[in-house]
Design brief:
The protein has a domain of 102 residues. Helix content is 34%, strand content 11%. The protein has 4 helices and 4 strands, in the order ααβαβαββ. A 4-stranded mixed sheet has the order 1-2-3-4, with no helix packed on it. Strand 1, helix 3 and strand 2 form a beta-alpha-beta unit. Helix 3 packs parallel to helix 4. The radius of gyration is 17 Å and the shape is globular. The relative contact order is 0.12. It comes from Capsicum annuum.
Length: 156
């Protein structure tokens, strides 16, 4: 007995809405389902990039962590280069802002903020915490682990 694929029969707008509830890792994984799903991720109005899985932060693992974070940053940039949705409802990025990547990461964060601004972002969530604490190399007066913008429709 052949199984009918009802999900793929839904209109593209409905599929994109469903994909908007997933992380980018999950969204991109759906592109392998069929040719119809291959490029749907480019039109998702909610972009959520989870932090990469990292080993415990011992000194001997710092190089591994730095390499993984830089690959994660590169992957985010690649996804943003191909993203086509003109308006973003939500833009969420999470990665540990380690001192070993702070110079490169700082440049990329500014690029991401410009990207979000150009897409008329409605909600922005940045989480750079390291082991549940705000990194010492980022100045923050209220010690939040993450920041959600705009607080009152700055880009509205």
């Amino acid at each position: 007995m052949e199984v009918e694929d009802r999900l793929s029969q839904l209109p593209e707008e409905v599929l994109v809405s469903i994909l908007s509830k997933l992380t980018m890792e999950e969204v991109v994984a759906t592109s392998f389902l069929s040719s119809r799903w291959r490029y749907l991720w480019k039109h998702v109005p909610c972009l959520s990039f989870n932090r990469p899985e990292l080993p415990n932060m011992g000194l001997n693992r710092m190089k591994i962590c730095t390499s993984k974070i830089m690959r994660h940053i590169s992957w985010i940039n690649h996804m943003l280069d191909y993203h086509k949705c003109p308006v973003l409802e939500e833009f969420s990025i999470s990665f540990p802002f380690l001192e070993s990547v702070s110079d490169a990461a700082e440049r990329e964060v500014f690029k991401w903020l410009n990207f979000a601004s150009s897409r008329k972002i409605q909600s922005l969530n940045l989480d750079f915490s390291v082991n549940g604490r705000w990194p010492e190399n980022i100045d923050n007066n209220n010690n939040n682990k993450s920041s959600v913008f705009p607080p009152s429709g700055v880009w509205g």
